[in-house]
Design goal:
Among the domains are: 240 residues, no CATH class; 99 residues, no CATH class. Helix content is 73%, strand content 0%. By secondary structure, the chain is mostly helical. Belongs to the crooked-neck family.
Length: 687
């Protein structure tokens, strides 16, 4: 039955009788069951599209959508093709708001929204049935990632409608609400281009009236204002992205230079908006810069009000609160309010009724401030500058009592007491510091203490200074002890016994790191030669040659031999050369062998030269044998590795043969393959 109708309808379509054909299509749809309508409708739609009958076509499409609502996109495309923008926008709005609608053309809701916005903006005069402003604003709320384009579309709608002031308001509103730099760039560029076009159109007009020229000047001023405001607008975008970004708030203040009223508003907004725990950057700087702004403008009382509020804020770190107090004190110092500065420090370090740990995060930073080293350091500096001796001493003692003192503060305390003539008190301060710190932090304290003690008492309290040096060296690591050994030895040289000095140098050679022993031995030799004569240095040279590594021992042997030569002890010098030759490879230690050769030429004879050459050959043979032995070991190791690899290859071959035998179901081979570990022969070094 549908086949007959289809052929009949196709025949009528060829006759070009529009009314009869349309009525026949309607009769066919009435005659056929609804399950077969899908065979008629494609032909019907083809028929109406082939003729310019927009009203009739729209009514027929509406009937078609009652049967197949999912074909709405086809209807929309037809409406667009015949430029029925109002109805196309209505239908697009309908399917966009339908949560169950699925595009047959594979378009997303976002793409449909984009198409709707484009229709609304480009044909404002034809759209009468929709509230364009409300629709696009709804899209802006829904599609956050496309806000820039949608704002531009809304502004374009008003521009095409001739409402230029309204379009400008839309651009300003957009710039005040967007949160991404990408959207800002799109909107700002569109805004400036729109203003440029309006200015260009006005400038191209001929015979401008006075009012037109005034309007043109206003547009130029407005355009320049937009360009000038760009950094500030961009900064506002960054703050909307993250209102807790301290750097952006401070940048905004710089952009508002020479605008004090607006700067105060920005600072007020910043300190109220930014949360300390979420702040990016140094939160306390907002308060400090705010107060400094008032100070720079001569409003000290207002600056103090800001600081009073700042010290009550719950910061994340104690250091932040300490920085606020210090900045406040420095402001008072800059304005010569020294008593006020001292009072502020006393307030800052006041100990709460309930003592807490500095690192207890459950306690407020205000309750933990009394253990801030920064605060106490500044307090001590202020007391030294403007306070009394007793008040300064009390501050340092309190710092030590709280155990927040540093080695440098101990040294400063000692120097302060010394400057005021309290030498023993300064030594007690150093001893307190020594009791608090360990190595290596205590190095500077010991160094200052011992130096000051020697300068004060010289040799009058020798036993006491000896006890101090022994106490220092008892736990001093090898890395730091050289300096104190030299200082101790110098003390004995100047005020004590030379014998004690040599003992100290001898102890130093045993305790210092190997890298510093050569230096210690050289000084030891020089000092003994000065105190007892060069002949007493022989035992030191012998000890040095025994303790030092070969390279340094070789150098020490040359010095020792030269000493014996100068003393006329030629045989002793030759014996030293012979002894040292055992650690001097003739191929590398050419300096030594040349020195011995020169020595024999000057002080030896034919027999001694021959003996030197014999020793040289013997030493060379010894070193060659060692090299050959090492080479033999390396070759043996290489051959052993090759044997292992060869055995492994054999094993792999046997495993492959066994696998093939299993596949062919051959009898199982029972002979086990065994490996015998080979013994590498040892090379014995003869004589």
């Amino acid at each position: 039955m549908p086949r007959i109708w289809i052929e009949y309808l196709q025949f009528l379509m060829s006759q070009c009788d529009l009314t009869k054909t349309r009525r026949t299509f309607d009769r066919s749809l009435q005659a056929l069951p609804i399950t077969q309508h899908n065979r008629i409708w494609p032909l019907y739609l083809k028929f109406i599209k082939s003729h310019n009958l927009p009203e009739t076509s729209i009514r027929i499409y509406r009937r078609y959508l009652m049967l197949l609502p999912e074909e709405a996109e086809d209807f929309i495309d037809y409406l667009i093709s015949i430029e029925r923008w109002d109805e196309a926008a209505l239908k697009l709005t309908e399917i966009v708001n339908d949560e169950h609608f699925v595009s047959k053309q594979g378009r997303s809701k976002h793409q449909l929204w984009t198409e709707l916005a484009e229709i609304l903006c480009r044909h404002p005069d034809e759209i009468h049935s929709l509230d364009v402003d409300a629709i696009i604003r709804e899209g802006i709320k829904r599609y956050v990632d496309q806000q820039g384009k949608l704002w531009i579309s809304l502004a374009e709608y008003y521009t095409r409608s001739g409402l230029f002031d309204k379009a400008r308001d839309i651009f300003e509103e957009a710039l005040a609400n967007i949160k991404t730099v990408r959207d800002f760039s799109q909107i700002f560029d569109a805004y400036t281009q729109s203003e440029e076009k309006l200015i260009q159109i006005r400038m191209n007009q001929e015979n401008l009236s006075e009012e037109d020229e005034i309007e043109l000047d206003l547009r130029m001023i407005r355009y320049e204002d937009i360009i000038e405001r760009r950094p500030l607008l961009l900064n506002s975008v960054a703050l909307r992205q993250n209102p807790h970004n301290v750097e952006e708030w401070l940048k905004k203040v710089k952009l508002l230079e020479n605008k004090p009223t607006e700067i105060v508003e920005v600072y007020s907004d910043a300190v109220q908006t930014v949360q300390a725990k979420q702040a990016i950057g140094k939160y306390y700087l907002l308060w400090v810069k705010f107060a400094q702004f008032y100070e720079d403008n001569g409003q000290l009382e207002d600056a103090r009000v800001i600081f009073e509020k700042a010290v009550t804020v719950e910061y994340v770190k104690v250091e932040d609160l300490a920085n606020v107090w210090c900045e406040w004190v420095e402001m008072e110092l800059r304005n010569n309010n020294f008593e006020m500065a001292l009072k502020l420090m006393q307030r800052a370090v006041s100990i709460p009724t309930k003592k807490t740990s500095y690192y207890d995060q459950n306690e407020s930073v205000q309750n933990r401030l009394y253990k801030s080293l920064k605060i106490w350091s500044m307090y001590a500096d202020l007391e030294e500058s403007f306070g009394t001796f007793e008040s300064t001493k009390a501050v340092y003692d309190k710092i030590i009592e709280l155990k927040i003192v540093t080695p440098q503060m101990i040294i400063n305390y000692g120097l302060f007491l010394e400057e005021n003539g309290y030498f023993e008190e300064s030594f007690k301060a150093y001893e307190k510091g020594i009791a608090l710190f360990r190595w290596p932090n205590v190095f500077d304290i010991w160094n200052t203490y011992l130096t000051k003690f020697l300068r004060r008492y010289k040799g009058s309290k020798l036993e006491r200074i000896r006890d101090l040096f022994e106490q220092c060296l008892e736990y001093c690591p090898a890395k730091y002890c050289k300096h104190f050994f030299f200082l101790y030895a110098k003390c004995e040289e100047e005020y004590g016994l030379a014998r004690n000095a040599t003992t100290i140098y001898d102890r130093a050679t045993k305790k210092v790191p190997p890298s510093e022993r050569m230096e210690v031995f050289n000084i030891f030799v020089r000092k003994v030669a000065e105190m007892f004569g060069v002949t007493h240095t022989r035992s030191i040279y012998e000890k040095a040659i025994e303790m030092l590594p070969d390279a340094e021992a070789r150098e020490m042997c040359l010095k020792f031999a030269d000493l014996e030569r100068k003393l006329g002890e030629i045989d002793r010098a030759r014996a030293i050369y012979a002894h040292c030759s055992q650690i001097c490879d003739p191929r590398t230690a050419t300096t030594f062998w040349n020195a011995w050769k020169d020595f024999e030429i000057k002080h030896g004879n034919e027999d001694t030269v021959r003996e030197m050459l014999r020793i040289k050959r013997s030493v060379m043979a010894t070193f060659n044998t060692q090299v050959n032995f090492m080479s033999a070991q390396m070759m043996a190791s290489a051959f052993h590795q090759q044997d292992k690899e060869h055995e492994l290859n054999k094993m792999n071959d046997l495993e492959n043969i066994a696998a093939e035998a299993n596949q062919q179901k051959m009898p199982e081979i029972k002979n086990a393959v065994q490996f015998v570990k080979s013994d590498s022969s040892k090379i014995n070094n003869g004589g």
